[in-house]
# Entry
Amino acid sequence: MKPTAIARIIVDVLMTLALLFLMGYQLWGDTAHEWAGAGMLILFLAHHILNRNWYQNLFKGRFTPMRVFQICVDMLLLIAMLAQMYSGIVMSRHVFAFLPIDGGMALARRLHILGAYWGFLLMSVHLGLHWNLFLGLAKRKAGAWKPSKIRGLVLFLIGLLIAAYGAFVLMDRDFPTYLFLQSEFVFLDYEEPIWSFYLDYICLMELWVFLAHYLSKGLRKLGSSRKAAKGKERL
# Structure
């Protein structure tokens, strides 16, 4: 594997871990949250530098259903992350406190809630759309494993069960309330055990990874069938 590809994977893994850490604001406090946010900003910039070819080729090639969906997700994620970074800097009391920023706190608070919850959802979908890459790496490491329908079915059912619990977490933790800004204040449980919080959020992330992974399979099949149909028409 090329060094650039390895660097992309490392940055993506670190961004995922940083995102989970940031969602647990009440567990770590203001200062740690801000420094993790600053780290996320650096990782965000590194991610886009490493993937700069994506922008160069944005308007080249065929726009298959899968590619259109992926572009929409990536653009929405970019907007969510920019909103998150801007609002985090405006509200900063520690890392960026030296900046001469006055006012704008009310807008920044709204943007921070929207950026956090939509960013979490969209980054999970983004991971799901690239899940084949991680599956491919796992298969290489497993090397000796032969294809097995039973193993595939068991893994699918495990993923489905985790996703089902993730759907429960989605409603239990009032995610739609914050996704659609029905409240301008996030109600946090400062007494919740760390393991309980992250179990829920990992399962919630897996819900969107699971849905995006299987949706991507369907979109790829749709794109292939359309290509085949056009090929027959030419004949």
